Amino acid sequence: MNSSSKVAALKQMPLDLGIEIQRDVNGIEMGVLENGIPYLTQRGLSGITGIARFAIQGITKEWEDHWNDEVLGKDRISFFKEYLNSKGFNEPKLYLESAQGGVTHFAYPDIVCMAFLEYYAFESKADNSMALENYRRFAAYGLRTFIYDALQYVPSDKWKYYNDRVSLLKDSSPIGYFTIFKETTGLIVDLISADLTVNDKTLPDISVGQTWAAYWKENNLEASYGARIPYEHNYPDYYPQALSNPQKPNAYPDAALPTFRQWFRQSYLPTKFPQYILKKANLLPGGASEATRIGAMYQPKILTPPAV
């Protein structure tokens, strides 16, 4: 997917990234998103840097206009690009949007806040003792740790949603049939290990199941392997989907398992999965660039013989 396509996909994404907690702490507005990313609001960022909000707004707009340009000089956007790119951040916006209570919040992640602090502490021509003091403070303590401690926020177990589903579904496969959830557990583990927030909003087995069901019908695989059958599938009680338990997805004949695995590895992962993971970019600490990296993990590898 080219750069313009990625930006278009991000702009179309719904504002479904929730706020775990947000408070004003000693005049600094801060919070944590549901994916664990700590942030400052624009007002909070203004407070720790000692600069006016219109200056932050100016840099934010300038970044949106030039984030994908080459680094050409020593202007302030070039500084931000070099700093943030070295940390793996290359997003079209310096903030994340979150809709809560009918209000859209603009959250500047901790890595972006540190870029502002370093710029105004060392690079800006303005004498800004507050930015320098806070930069030294957070460079030693860590802004992420500071926000977590100030809000008394304890990150939840990132494996909880997955483990609870596995515990509930481990014995649900009908004898002689395989289930999509069980066959995609390796993918889900990879996503959690990559720090994707896997919860009730991230259900890759549904994406795989819907795509495979379409492939099954289009190729009339029932004629070759026999009929699929519905089975009972329940979500943990705290999932919103649990309201419609028991679910009735399809299990597929074991005879079709080699065909499914071949399709999954050679078709779904390289062609469909990158689109799915990009839609979940706002749940990743690294955003779209991290989503692209994860999607590339499953691209076919071309092996070349060693040089003789």
Q: What about the largest sheet?
A: 5 strands, antiparallel
**Which regions contain 5 or more consecutive residues with pLDDT less than 50?**
1-15
Rg on CA atoms, Å: 23 Å
What overall geometry do the principal axes of the alpha carbons give?
A: elongated
Rounded average pLDDT: 82
Strand order of the largest sheet: 1-2-3-5-4
Q: Helix/strand-derived class?
A: alpha+beta
Strand content: 5-15%
DSSP helical segment count:
14
Helix fraction, binned, reads 40-55%
Helices and strands, in order, run as: HEEEHHHEEHHHHEHHHHEEHH
Task: State the end-to-end CA separation.
Answer: 36 Å
Number of strands: 8
Describe this structure in words.
Helices cover 49% and strands 12% of the residues. The strands form two sheets. A five-stranded antiparallel beta sheet has the order 1-2-3-5-4. A three-stranded antiparallel beta sheet has the order 6-8-7. Helix 5 (110-123) packs across helix 6 (129-141) and helix 13 runs antiparallel to helix 14 (287-296). The protein has helices at residues 3-11, 42-49, 53-66, 76-86, 110-123, 129-141, 143-150, 160-169, 180-183, 185-193, 204-218, 222-225, 257-279, 287-296; strands at 19-25, 28-33, 38-41, 96-100, 103-109, 177-178, 229-230, 250-253. By secondary structure, it is an alpha+beta fold.
